[in-house]
Amino acid sequence: MEILVFKTNVTSKRKVSKVSSLLTSFPTIEQWNFDLDDCDKVLRIVATGLNPGSVESLLHTAGFNCQMLDY
Question: Which partner for 64 in 17, 28, 33, 59 could form a disulfide, CB atoms 3.0-4.6 Å apart?
Fold first, then answer.
């Protein structure tokens, strides 16, 4: 299991709900959450064998910016 951290422009609970079904559609994602109080609007994902590019593409398709962060 690994933790992936992404910088996003998801700024509200309404926008989180817009991507919620997209994130839960990945069978390898165990947990995910947004930190809307963080300046980078961080998305943290706990998953096994998940390609970070897939998450970035998924959010881009939904109209959001998403970039993996090194931590």
Answer: 59
